[in-house]
Amino acid sequence: MDIQIIALFSAPVVSIIALIYGYILSQRIMKEDMGNAKLQQIAKAVKDGALSYLARQFKVVFPIMGVLAVVIALTLGIGMSLTFLLGGIFSALIGYFGMRIAVEANVRTAHNSTKSLNAALQTSFGAGTVNGMLVVGLGLLGVSLIYMYSYFAFISQGADAVAKNATEVLVGYGFGAALLALFMRVGGGIFTKAADVGADLVGKVEKGIPEDDPRNPATIADNVGDNVGDCAGMAADVFESYALTIVAAMILGGSLFGLKGVVFPLLARSGSILTSIL
Question: Is RNA-binding among this UniProt entry's keywords (predicted)?
Answer without folding.
Answer: no
